[in-house]
Each structure stands twice: as structure tokens, then as C-alpha cells.
């Protein structure tokens, strides 16, 4: 697998994570807490992919690692906001949340691995 193909796959994966997060929040009850937490989730989940794109266009190795660290931080933050939203114990929403949390954890681990292997 070429570096370009690998890069594209992670760009696509982070894009899909942000997209699925947006679809998920549209299904939540519109309580004050959910509205505020959803805003934070949308920002954090989108920031993962946006910073990964920035990392791939980095001007230096230092810039690359800074962006990858931000990706990891935003993936962790996404997990936090996912845990906070209220699904009203609806099974479908609970399952979606668990899938998104799992993806956030996997993205956190991927970015952590990139940092460890290249530092």
C-alpha cells in the first residue's frame, strides 16, 4: 500500500467519523444539555479530520507532529462529548453512540501510534 493510499484512507475515515457524528446529533432530543454538548461534539469530530489534512500539508516535521497531536486530542475530546449526550436510553441511539465512541478510541490510538513511531 502506498503512502498516498494510506493517507487517503485515514482522511476518508476521519471525514466519515465527523459525518456520522453530525448524523447522530440530529437524532438526539433537543434539550439544553444536548444542544450544547452536540455543538462541542460537532466541532471536535470535524477538527480531527481537518487537522489530519493540515498535518499532511505540514511545512515541517515539527508542524506535522503538532497537527497529529491535535488530531489525537480532538478524538479524545469527541469521546468525552459522546459520553455526555443524553440518548434517553434509546437502544438505537445507544448503539450509535457506542460505535462512535469505539471509532474515537481507535482514531486516538492510530494518532498515538503515529506519534510514537515517528518521534
UniProtKB/TrEMBL annotation:
- Origin organism is Candidatus Roizmanbacteria bacterium RIFCSPHIGHO2_02_FULL_38_11
Mind telling me which Pfam families this protein's record contains? 23S_rRNA_IVP
Q: Specify the protein name.
A: Four helix bundle protein
Q: Which InterPro entries match?
A: 23S_rRNA-intervening_sequence (IPR012657), 23S_rRNA_IVS_sf (IPR036583)
